[in-house]
From TrEMBL:
Signal sequence range: 1-19
Pfam short name (any one): Transglut_core
Keywords, alphabetical: Signal
Descriptive protein name: DUF3857 domain-containing protein
Domain of life the protein comes from: Bacteria
InterPro entries in UniProt: DUF3857, Transglutaminase-like
Length: 672
């Protein structure tokens, strides 16, 4: 579970530019006197040094295990940094195989005058929590923490699970002065590696010969040799190890930005996945798979492939349903989709495998994402449609890193045709065919077919979702504005509106709407098509804003787009290392008509203009004209991509800045 492993990201970090001399217990007076971080003065805490070391060893049974030691020193600057004295380390258990986590050398240092005081962690400061059946968390709370404290701790993870080495993160929520990670891998284990590129990492490599003593009370020795005679075996193993060291310093805290899918996708890390093993006198054994092998494994899983073959539980109901409706392809899809969506309740459990099974879920009318959407695939196939499951990783779960089924945590239905693939997800009560919930829009997925073939598919929407706003406004001589507004929401805009609006009290929604409209007063509110999912949602209302324009002397200054005017450019950083995620393409249309007050005339209007990025990735069209005592505007703001690579960031930032400037130009009226 990647979400579990990401808990480690903000724990495994450490410090100090004198990294080579770092030792636990050697806290200096200067470190304790430091009142703010040198490069990030607003940071509530900082990691002064972090060091990790992963190696292979034998356990008492003579089996290989992975041992990871972590040493951390953290400086606490403010009360907001106290939470970093609460340390959590996840660990995994499966049957008789268990990871072990042991904390040692956990100490808080404070300064009393020029004297350093040490407070050690006591037993009551250590806890264990069961997160799931298989995942658990070891926790410590360091004592005597206050502003200015320095805390240190060491922990060791001993793991029998050799399929992956613990992911090491080089960046997190706090600035890091110095960080170093070393991994030593015996020649018998070959791992695939991914090194995230978002910050520069120094790499060093060395090869050394290692001799280890092992003992085993099993008939199978840890070195891979079988013995039918010895009940206890003791011996030595000599082999070569590949040692890799990664280090960097002065790492800034990872800052969230506007339009980011999941900021944790852009942590710098090194990951390893076991590719194969090759022990002396044994055949090579492969672990990492290609997609053909992955698909075969998934389809043979009784909690996945076999669930798609079940049909007796729904057959009579679907026969009746199909016979009662027209049977064009589109009608058939919508009928079956709506039936599953309306019947089933989603229990909020994300996984691509069934737990209770589709039959039980159908009977209870409740299921996880796999039970609901595999049921949908089975029904669509029963109706003669080319439906297949599509594996996804949700936005919260992160991007897929390896060719590995454990990277996925979600499944939807895919209908393939000559026109491409239509995605369906019946877990959302506001869903429609062809529209996935926002949580599932995570760049790519993998469709897996009955013939055991598979293909990567893009799930980012490509069609613009429209929001159409019509404003009929009256400007008064005191600067107040009143009138009527009508807004139509299409496609994803309608879905997002339904998800937000239908889950809140109307009074709370109207309060938020009034704030959005510059603290206006909203009345006569009406909502249309809120439950007709194949139609755009329409909201209409009257408004009154007592501070809609600025009256200065005999002139009135007014923003053409009124309360829809952009307040700031959301893109502020000079550079950006990761993609801009708009989630889906969109078009915002505004048709605004403003009647000017009696006794005033137009002194000046902003000029009509078009702002565009190369290739029309984003466009802004502003048209304005006076018709008698009315000022009329037609404005289109198009973002024609759901996701934009970082090489376009500079142009995107300039585009938004030009749009901001244009929207903030003023209409000027003067008294006649």
């Amino acid at each position: 579970m990647k979400n579990i492993s990401l808990l480690i990201a903000f724990l495994l970090l450490s410090l100090n530019t004198f990294a080579q001399k770092f030792e636990l217990g050697k806290v200096s007076v200067d470190e304790l006197k430091e009142t703010s971080h040198k490069t990030d003065p607003s940071a509530p805490a900082a990691i002064l040094y972090k060091k990790g070391f992963t190696r292979f060893d034998f356990n008492n049974s003579g089996d290989w295990i992975i041992v990871t030691d972590v040493e951390v020193r953290v400086k606490i600057y403010t009360k907001e940094g106290y939470s970093y004295a609460n340390v959590e380390v996840p660990y995994y258990t499966k049957g008789m195989d268990k990871e072990e986590v042991v904390f040692t050398d956990a100490v808080t240092y404070n300064l009393d005058g020029n004297k350093i005081e040490k407070t050690k962690l006591k037993n009551e400061g250590e806890f264990k929590e069961d997160y799931t059946v298989n995942w658990h968390i070891k926790k410590i709370t360091l004592p005597a923490v206050k502003e200015g404290s320095v805390i240190e701790y060491h922990y060791q993870i001993r793991s029998p699970f050799k399929r992956s080495i613990p992911t090491w993160y080089f960046q997190g929520k706090l600035p890091i002065n110095n960080i170093k990670y070393t991994v030593k891998i015996p020649q018998y284990f070959i791992y695939n590696r991914i090194l995230s590129p978002y910050i520069p990492i120094k790499e060093e490599e060395d090869t050394s010969k290692e001799t280890k003593v092992f003992s085993s009370s099993n008939t199978k020795g840890g070195y891979g040799r079988k013995s039918s005679v010895l009940k206890n075996e003791v011996g030595t193993v000599t082999y070569y190890e590949i040692e890799k060291t990664y280090s960097t310093e002065n790492v800034p805290a990872l800052q969230d930005e506007h339009y980011v899918d999941n900021i944790e996708n852009y942590l710098s890390f090194v990951k390893h996945e076991l590719s194969k093993t090759h022990f002396p006198n044994q055949q090579e054994k492969k672990y990492a798979s290609d997609w053909d092998a992955i698909v075969k494994t998934i389809y043979n899983d009784e909690n996945f492939g076999r669930e798609l073959d079940e049909k007796d539980y729904f057959e009579d109901d679907i026969k009746t349903l199909i016979n009662e409706t027209n049977t064009t392809r589109g009608e058939l899809i919508t009928t079956i989709y709506n039936y599953v969506r309306d019947r089933m309740a989603f229990n909020e459990q994300y996984r691509y495998e069934c737990v209770d099974g589709v039959k039980k879920a159908y009977e209870s009318k409740t299921g996880n994402v796999a039970e609901i959407n595999l049921m949908l695939v089975a029904m669509l196939r029963y109706a003669g449609l080319n439906a297949n499951p599509v594996l996804l990783s949700t936005r919260a779960n992160g991007h897929v890193s390896f060719v590995n089924r454990t990277e996925f945590n979600y499944v939807v239905a895919g209908l393939e045709s000559q026109n491409g693939i239509m995605f369906l997800d019946a877990t959302s009560k506001n869903g429609v065919p062809g529209l996935l919930p926002i949580r599932a829009l995570n760049v790519t997925g993998r469709v897996i077919r009955e013939n055991l073939s598979s293909a990567q598919v893009l799930v980012t929407p490509v069609i613009n979702s429209v929001e159409n706003t019509v404003v009929m406004a009256n400007l008064n001589s005191n600067g107040s504005i009143d009138g009527q507004i009508r807004v139509q929401y299409f496609d994803y805009n309608a879905y997002v509106f339904r998800e937000a609006y239908l889950n809140v009290n109307q009074d709370n929604y109207l309060s938020g709407l009034e704030k959005k409209l510059g603290n206006a007063i909203v009345s006569d509110y009406k909502l249309t098509n809120d439950k007709e999912y194949d139609k755009p949602i329409i909201e209409g209302f009257s408004f009154q804003n007592n501070a809609g324009a600025d009256v200065i002397g005999d002139k009135i200054y007014l923003s053409p787009m009124l309360f829809y005017t952009m307040k700031e450019n959301p893109f502020k950083q000079e550079k950006r290392a990761y993609p801009v995620d708009f989630i889906y393409p969109r078009q915002d249309r505004y048709n605004i008509s403003i009647t000017i007050p009696d006794g005033y005339e137009v002194e000046s209007l902003p000029e009509s203009a078009t702002v565009a990025m190369d290739g029309n990735i984003c466009t802004f069209r502003f048209n304005i004209a006076q018709r008698g005592n009315q000022i009329q505007m037609v404005i289109n703001n198009d973002i024609n991509v759901g996701r934009l690579n970082p090489e376009y960031y500079s142009d995107l930032k300039s585009f938004f800045n030009d749009v901001f400037v244009k929207q903030n130009e003023k209409i000027v009226l003067k008294k006649v």
